[in-house]
Protein 1
Amino acid sequence: MTGESKTSVRKIAGAEKRQLAVSLRRGGASFDQIAKQLACSRGQAYKMVKCELQKLAEETKEETGHLRQLELERLDRIFTPVYDGALGGDLPSVDRCLKIIDQRCKLLGLNMPVCIATTDSQGNDILISREWLQIRAIVIDALDEAPGVKARVLEALAVIERQEVQQAQPAQQAGDEA
C-alpha cells in the first residue's frame, strides 16, 4: 500500500495550519476570523480546531494513563516492604501503608469527592466538590484572553450550579425528614 508519508511537505503544512488555527482560537479569534486568515471556509476552520483539540485530548489522556500507571507501580514498590512491618504490628509501618493506600485511591479516583460549602450568586447555600472548583478555575483562567466567551461560560456555569442546587435540595429535604 503506497500512501503519503506522515512527514511529507503537504502533511507538515496541514499540521502547522491546524496548530495555527488552534493558536488563533486560543487568542480569542472567531472561526470567521480564523477562516479569513488561513484562506479557508468557516467550516474548515472549525474542523481544524476541533481535530487538533481532539488529538490533544487523546494524547493527554494517553499520557495521563501512562503516568498514572507509572505512579501506581512506584507506590507498589514502596508498599511491599512496609506491608510486612504493618502486618507485624509496627505502628509507623501501618501509618505508612495507610498513606500509600490513600495515594493509590486518589490516583484511581476511588475517594468520594470532598465538598465545600459555599453560596451561589443569590446567596443560596450549596455544596461544591473540590474537583468542580478546580475545573471551574482552570476554565475561567483559560478564557481570560477571550472576555466575550468568558462571560458566556460564566453564565453557563452559573446555570449548571443552580441546577445542582435544585437537584440537591429535594435530596437534602428528604434526608432531613428521615
Protein 2
Amino acid sequence: MQLTKHTDFAFRTLIYLAMMQQDLTTIEKITNSFDISKSHAMKIVNKLVHAGWIKAVRGKNGGISLGCEANKISLKAVIELMENTLEPVNCTHPLCLIAGACKLRGMLWEAQQQYLNYLAPRTVADLIDFETSKLIHASEQKSLQQS
C-alpha cells in the first residue's frame, strides 16, 4: 500500500507539531520546512483540526499546535482519515473479466488489514526520536531567523 501525498504530508505536519518547542507555529513554517504547497497544507490542516488532532488559533498572533497528546493519535486512524479509499484494487472500473473468481482482491485486502492492524497501536509519539527532533528544531531556528 502506498500512501498518498495527502497522508504523507498529514504525518509530516503532525510530527512537526509534536516536536515544536514554541506554543504555536504557522502553516507557512511547516510548508517551508517540508516544501509543501500552502494550499495543499491548508486542506490537510483543516481535516486534522476537524479530527481534533490540531488546534487552530485565529488572528494576528494565531497559529496551529497539536490539539491533543501525540500518543493519542493512532497512525492507523490518520491513514483512515486522510486516504480517500482503502480499496487495494479496483475491480469495477473497468469491470474485470475475472472479478467474480479472482482471489487477488481478497488477499490484498487481508494483507492491508494486517498492515493497518500493525499500525493501530502505534502513535505519532512513536515517530519522535532524537534525530528527527534535531532536524525539526533546526528548521524552526532557521524559520525564526528569517522572520
Protein 3
Amino acid sequence: MPPPYQQPAYLQQPPPYQQRPPYQQPPGSQFPAGPPRPSAGGGKGGVIIGIVLVLFVVGLISRAFGSDDDEGSRPGSGGGGGGDVNFTMPSVVGMELQFAQDLMQDNGVFYSTSHDLQGSRNQVVDSNWVVCTQNPAAGTQVTGSAEGVIDFGVVKRGEICP
C-alpha cells in the first residue's frame, strides 16, 4: 500500500505576505493607541438637544389633547362640527364635489354625503366628480344640526348629468 499523501513543506506554511506580525505603534509616536475616547465633559450638547426635543413633543401632545378655549369662536367653524347651523343653501350644481364640500364646511357642516348618479361608484377623489343634484335645494334655509343631511348627486368629470 502506498504511503498517505503529504503536502510539500512550501504548502504547509503560509505565504510570506500572510506572515506579518500584528501592528505595533512605533515608540515615540504622537498618536495614541486605539480609537479616540470622548472627554469627560463632552456630550452636554446631546443632552440639551434631547431635553428640547422632549419639551417639543410634550407641547405637541398637550396642544392636540388639551382644551381649546376658542373652539367655535372662529366665523364659519360651526363649533368644530356637530353644532347648530343657520344659512341659506347655495347652489352647488355644476361645481366640483370638493368645492361643494368646502363650501358646506365654510357654513359649519362638516359631514355631507354624495352618491353616483350613473351607478354605484365610490367618490374616492372628490375633485374628479361634478355635482348634478343637491338636496336640500338652493335657496332653502338650513337650520339646526345638518350633519349628514346634505346630499349631492354626482357624476365623474367629463360625464353628462342625467
